[in-house]
Design a protein that fits this description.
Number of helices: 19
Helix content: 55-70%
Radius of gyration: 21 Å
Bound molecules: Double cubane cluster
Number of strands: 8
Structural class: alpha/beta
Distance between the termini: 44 Å
Strand content: 5-15%
């Protein structure tokens, strides 16, 4: 791929040598973690292709769109409404990163004890290895956790086009008002950037397009209730990760095709692991590409993941946006309603999340919950203790894992996960 896209990467100002090194690490990790899995659905071939071209073909498509005048907007959080972006004839891409990169440079700008996700986003910028970031006409930051909101002050010095969205922290009437004000301000900013006025028709279409992506993921999730599990957690996570990069229509079709295949598997009682394999619900911080460490450990330690209570998973995709409104105002209200339900740990109190985890545990017929927090992520680390207590109160076996993007703790984590899986048998 390197030679084929070299010019394109050069034009984006990427550091070619470092970028090659990153792609080779990514390719090796994908080979070792994904392509060694057994009984994968054939439809996953599409996602293998997407990953192999994640910095190639998809970037070329975005640059071609840009040449036609379409704008690209990058975001770090599921609170940024894709519906609004699509309605203005622009494209939204996820910018979160799941690998350590250029850490020496990063730690000159951020304290060491910053979560890996934030550090990684800085590393990809400072190391000049993220073509999505370099293609973006606008980058949206959001005032969610303290780490992110303070880091955006510094990121503002590194990029030219950072837009920061304020977000509520409490699910009150005032909180909803703030979200509404901020979404209207964002709508205006996107209209200014694109020179396109959002109409009721375009907003409705944007809502329907994003809902279709979500419905495909809901269909996939529902199929994961089957015993034996028809798809690995790693593969399902990949689909949830690609949700943030791919063209929406193509993504929806590809996930639906996998679902067609899984329905046939379920009819024949075919699974990716034996029927008695302990079923895990994974809950906690989002996992951006290529953060596959914990799912890989779990699924090579005698268990299978059947659901993700995560922003790269059900927390991010769970609710649809009502598209029945006939005016821009009605539809914007529906967008506010939809996003205000997201139960990110930055909210206080956040009891909805506790309830949702138990609900998912039952729905997906899980045997245990593994709670995953990134080190130094205070919202999820602190909430993990409440999650554990609430689950223990319901006699749900729970394992709390605090980790980062490094591979140093793999052995230790594997021992803990194996013991947990054994306990669930
Ligand atoms: S809605 S979870 S995508 S903020 S891991 S950076 S919380 S210190 S990512 Fe998130 Fe939006 Fe919430 Fe979802 Fe901070 Fe924690 Fe790091 Fe995190």
């Amino acid at each position: 791929m390197s030679e084929k896209y070299k010019r394109m990467w050069e034009s984006l100002g990427l550091a070619l040598e470092s970028h090659d090194a990153l792609l080779s690490i990514l390719g090796k990790a994908y080979q070792d973690i994904y392509l060694t899995q057994k009984n994968r659905p054939e439809g996953m071939g599409y996602f293998d292709f997407v990953i192999s071209e994640i910095h190639g073909l998809r970037i070329k498509e975005l640059l071609d769109e840009k040449e036609q005048g379409r704008k690209v907007i990058g975001s770090y959080c599921v609170f940024v409404p894709e519906e609004i972006v699509l309605a203005a004839n622009a494209t939204l891409v996820g910018l979160c990163s799941g690998a350590d990169f250029a850490m020496e440079k990063v730690e000159k700008l951020l304290p060491r004890n910053t979560c890996s996700l934030i550090k990684s986003s800085f590393g990809f910028k400072l190391g000049k290895v993220c073509p999505y970031l370099e293609s973006a006409d606008m980058i949206v930051g959001e005032n969610t956790c303290d780490g992110k909101k303070k880091a955006y002050e510094t990121l503002n010095d590194l990029v030219q086009n950072l837009y920061v969205m304020d977000l509520p922290q409490v699910k009150s009437n005032q909180g909803r008002e703030l979200l509404k004000t901020e979404y209207n301000r964002f709508k205006e900013a996107v209209e200014n950037l694109t020179g396109t006025t959002i109409t009721a028709e375009s907003l409705k279409k944007g809502i329907q397009t994003v809902n279709n992506k979500r419905k495909a993921i809901h269909r996939l999730s529902a199929l994961r209730k089957a015993i034996p599990a028809p798809i690995s957690g790693l593969d399902a996570l990949l689909a949830n990760q690609v949700f943030f990069y791919d063209s929406p229509e193509r993504f929806t079709d590809s996930v639906n095709k996998i679902c067609d295949e899984l329905e046939k598997r379920i009819e024949k009682k075919e699974g990716v692991f034996p029927e008695a394999t302990p079923r895990i619900l994974l809950s906690g911080c989002p996992m951006a590409v290529p953060n596959w460490k914990l799912p890989w450990i779990i699924e090579t330690s005698g268990a299978v993941i059947v659901g993700e209570e995560s922003c790269v998973g059900e927390r991010g995709t769970r609710n649809l946006t009502d598209d029945s409104g006939s005016t821009v105002d009605d539809l914007m209200e529906a967008i506010v309603d939809r996003y205000f339900k997201i139960d990110c740990a930055i909210f206080t109190p956040n009891t909805d999340r506790l309830n949702h985890i138990t609900e998912m545990f039952d729905t997906y017929k899980a045997d245990g919950v593994i709670h995953y927090s990134l080190q130094f992520c205070q919202p999820y680390l602190i909430e993990a203790m409440r999650v554990e207590k609430a689950l223990e109160g319901k006699n749900i076996p729970t394992l709390r894992v605090d980790t980062d993007y490094s591979m140093e703790d793999v052995g230790q984590l594997k021992t803990r996960v194996e013991a947990f899986a054994e306990q669930l048998k």
